[in-house]
Amino acid sequence: MTERKRRKRKENLLGYLVISPWLIGLLIFTFLPMMYSLYLSFTNFDGISTAKWIGLDNYKRMFQDEKFYQSLKVTFTYVALLVPLRLAFALLVAMLLCSKHKGIGIYRSVFYLPSLLGGSVAIAIMWGQLFGADGAINSIIRMLGGDVTISWIGNTKTALLVLVILGVWQFGASMLIFIAGLKQVPVTYYEAATLDGASGFQKFRCITLPMLSPVIFFNLIMQIINAFKAFNESYIITKGGPLDKTLFYALYIYKQSFEYFNMGYGSALAWVLLLIIAVFAIFIFKSSDNWVYYETKGD
């Protein structure tokens, strides 16, 4: 073995040694639990007694489970409403804050703050109070002359919308990523477009969106994954009600596993969720060649 190969091997071993805590954590706290969950999905297990192998019965059970279909409907609706609205709002604010004005960093921090606080129990409880029958939202509407007495979170037509608004409010992370992407767009492109007489909308459509498409692609993937895994909002604010109109899929997994003690069925539901997310991710990756523009990509 040459000296160069020995040095290369030593550097590789040192690299693996440095990342070994992360690798061990990944193995113990992620991979092994996932494999155990996959095994449990083929069993009847209540979390206490010995798991009993039942094959595909848990997966067959889903086809007769009305709440399974309801949770899918609620979750798909939530994803379809939340993801476009959050990304559009984040991009709009990012474009407004992508400047060098004095104190702009303070505004960015303020707009990012909801993303840090939005998933907390306290914010969820406050959100429920705001949209309650006697909450601040109804009080403001009454001050403006309206006659509103309904509970927005207790109404079957508006409960899910309240959770969507909470999700859109937590746009800060996507906003910061958009700001970073906007800063990478060459100013010369806009200058050349201005000389050609392009309008502001034409610059946005023909320059900003294509140059920002890799960032949009990344944000889209991350937001879809996070939206499918939504749990806290429904669990804390509505408990899945009213009439299961906010029964998120992740909440239904929790109910089956830890309230009804159907760990095996809950594990099967979790793997179906993983499959759904994987299908969406694959579809977006496959379609990215048609709408994601990479400046350094070869013809």
Architecture blueprint of SSEs:
Layout: H1 3-40, E1 43-44, E2 52-53, H2 57-61, H3 66-97, H4 104-117, H5 121-130, H6 136-143, H7 159-169, H8 172-182, H9 187-195, H10 200-228, H11 232-238, H12 249-259, H13 263-291
Antiparallel strand pairs: 1-2
Helix pairs in contact: 1-13, 3-7, 3-8, 3-10, 3-12, 4-8, 5-11, 8-10, 10-13, 12-13
What is the typical, i.e. mean, pLDDT? 90
Largest beta sheet: strand ordering = 1-2
The dominant shape is globular
Alpha-beta classification: mainly alpha
From the N-terminal CA to the C-terminal CA, the straight-line distance is: 42 Å
Strand content: under 5%
Instruction: Round the Cα radius of gyration to an integer and report it.
Output: 24 Å
Regions with pLDDT < 50 over 5+ consecutive residues? none
Structure summary, number of beta strands: 2
User: Which sheet architecture does the biggest sheet show?
Assistant: 2 strands, antiparallel
Tally of separate helices: 13
